[in-house]
Structure formats: structure tokens, C-alpha cells
Amino acid sequence: MGSPEDLDYPQVILQYSSGFLVSKVMFTACELGVFDLLLESGEPLTSDAMAARLGTSTMGMERLLDACVGLKLLAVELTQGGALYRNTDISNIYLTKSSPKSQYHIMMYYSNTVYSCWRYLADAVREGRNQYERAFGVSSEDPFGAMYRSEEEMLKFIAGQNSVWSICGRDVLAAFDLSIFMQIYDLGGCGGALAQECVSLYPKSTVTIYDLPKVVQVAKERFIPPEEHRITFHEGDFFNDSIPEAELYILSKILHDWDDDKCGQLLSKVYKACKPGGGVLLVESLLNEDKSGPLETQLYSMNMLVQTKGKERTAVEYSRLLEAAGFGDIQVKKTGKLYDAVLGRK
Question: What secondary structure letter does DSSP report for 289?
């Protein structure tokens, strides 16, 4: 934050306190189909027309649309026939379901699942553990058992992760030249969006998605086209099952789910399986070394508290984990985007 002369601190505090209102407006507009309707209509619409077609109250729809205008997610034009609303470029690209870069699914996951856990943030801070038991009545001991507590929840999570990599994947995969690695294992590769970005960027490489059997089945059936022969699958639990030999292992948003001991166990297994000259690519959101930011990463770390057994870390902390497992020649690349890259070599 700036100096007292630069900021109206009471105003800043009020803005912070109402931050959740901003996200809920965006989530609600997505859930109700506001942006999809405006895209499909091909022309601006009145609030009355949108309320009728989306099955909402006219008063509620008008207020929602006006709030979206304030957030720059919609634009409005006043005419003799009334106010006409249309999507902005941002909402067309990121908030409509049909866009290749759509963030709709991660929005819905945050709105319906993450928010339920964050309701108990104070309890998480007091207890130092995730809040699935309070939020959903399921055991908090196995975070992914809780996340995948139903097929519907698993699909929401996988689709949400895919949407993130649709806009962040290429940045982290291009942080280092990975073209020398022909045989790649994506540990916890989920729905395969990062794997697809990888074979697109490095067409001579093959990627094997290693994940739980039910996740692999969903990836095969719903997300990876059958004609994509450069992507294969391996069913298993990489903490408890063997890890096959490969040249490069990608761990994208894996280590931040676990404490240091668990991370060390996994990295040691990866090191033993890794071919000489191979490596491991960690894809994580890196904290500054003094933990002063970035704010997004600090908030992600709070989310790890309420949803997992892990935390976000600094580049030095990840480097120490890699070194302890045997990896060397560690390189760090901050992308300037949401996720960064750390490469260790064997």
C-alpha cells in the first residue's frame, strides 16, 4: 500500500470488506447465463427481455446488469426504448461457456465449492486444517477424497482446472525450452488441458497423464480427443503406486496441496524414476521471498489452508525441496502471470 497521503484508508478498508460482493456478482451472472444469452442473441437486450428469457425477476435482473456494467463486464446504451446491454470483450472471451478461453467452470467451482469452505476460514486458522467436514460433512483427512466426493464435484473441479490452463498453460510450459524432453509424465494431469498445451508447443514430445482411475476415465471420455495419440494415460495413485521412468515430470499445482514431508516423499520417488539427464518441472504460484506478495498467491495460500493440507511457497522453499530429493541445476522463472515455473535436473 502507498503512504497515508496517497490513500484514503477508510475507503480502502470498505473496498476490501466488500470484495466478496464483486466476485458473487460475476459468479451469479455466469450461473444465470447472462453473458451466454447476450452472445447468442447477437444484439443488445433490455433487462426486461433478459429477465423473461432467463426466468428471473425484472428488478433483480436490472440491478445485476447494472452491477456488471460497473465491473466493466457489460456495456450499456440508453435509447428511447430503454437501456440496452451488451457484453464487453472481456466477458465474451472469458465468461461465456462456448469460448475456448472460458473461465466459466472455475467460476462455478469457486462459487459453489470454494466459497462454502471459506465460510469457515476463522476455524481453519484456529485449527490449521481444511474445512470439508464443516462445509460438506465429509472427512478432511483425505482432501482429494473430499474434493471428489461425488461425480458432479469431480467434474466441476476437472473442468475448472482445464479452464485455468487454457489461459495460463502456455506461459509456464514456455518458461524453459522443454523440447529436449521426448517422454513426459504429467503427474496429477487431471483433465489434460496442460498436456494438450504441451504437445501443441512441443509436437515431438509425448505426454502421459498419471492420475486416479476415475479422473483418467473422465479425461478420456470428455476432454482428450481419441485422435490425439501423443497423449496417453496411466491410472494410479503416485503417492502409493510406482512411477514409471520418463525424461521429464510435470507437477502442476501438486506440491502446494501438501506439507513439506509429503512433498519430499513424492519428489524422492520422482527423482528415483527419472532418467539421468531428465528433470522435473514444478508449476506453482510463487510467493516473494519475504512473503510480502503477490496478493493473489497469498490468497491462494489461504485457500490451501481451507481446502488442502498444503501452502504456497517461495522459489527458495521449492528449490530446497528439490535439492533434498536429489535434483540440481535448479532454475526459476517468474512468468509475470498467475503461475510460475521451477525446473530441476537429475
Answer: T
Neighbours of 33 (CB within 10 A): 19
In this structure, what are the phi and psi dihedrals at residue 184, rounded to the nearest 5 degrees? -120, 135
Cell of residue 328, nine digits: 540440481
The residue written with cell numbers 487454457 in the block is 166
- Those residues whose C-beta lies under 8 Å from the C-beta of residue 139, and which sit 6 or more positions away, are 132, 133, 145, 146
φ, ψ for residue 85, nearest 5 deg: -110, 145
Give CA–CA dist 10/16, Å, rounded: 10
Task: Please tell me which residue in 105, 229, 234, 256 is annotated as part of the active site.
Answer: 256
Q: State whether residue 38 is helix, strand or coil.
A: helix
Examine the residue annotation and report whether 234 is marked as an active-site residue of this protein.
no
The CA distances from residue 163 to 72, 95, 100, 289, in Å, are 21, 11, 8, 29
In sequence order, which ranges of 77-204 are alpha helices (DSSP H)? 89-94, 104-109, 115-118, 121-127, 132-136, 143-147, 151-173, 193-201
pLDDT band at 1 (very low <50, low <70, confident <90, very high): very low
Q: What is the pLDDT of residues 207-236, one digit of tens each?
A: 999 999 999 999 999 999 999 999 999 999
CB contact set of 63 (below 8 Å; sequence gap of 6+): none
The Cα 146–Cα 113 span in angstroms is 11
Q: H-helix or E-strand containing 62? A: helix 58-70
Residues constituting the chain = 346
Amino acid letter, residue 193? A
Contact 157, 218 (CB under 8 A): no
Mean pLDDT of the chain: 95
Give the separation between CA 48 and CA 73, rounded to whole angstroms: 19
pTM of the model: 0.93
> Residue 92 and residue 133: Cα distance in Å, rounded?
37
Closest CA to 105 of 20, 191, 163: 163
Q: HSE (CB half, 13 Å, CA atoms) of 85?
A: 26
Whether cis (ω within 30° of 0) applies to the bond prior to 294 is yes
The string of pLDDT tens digits covering residues 139-156 is 989 999 999 999 999 999
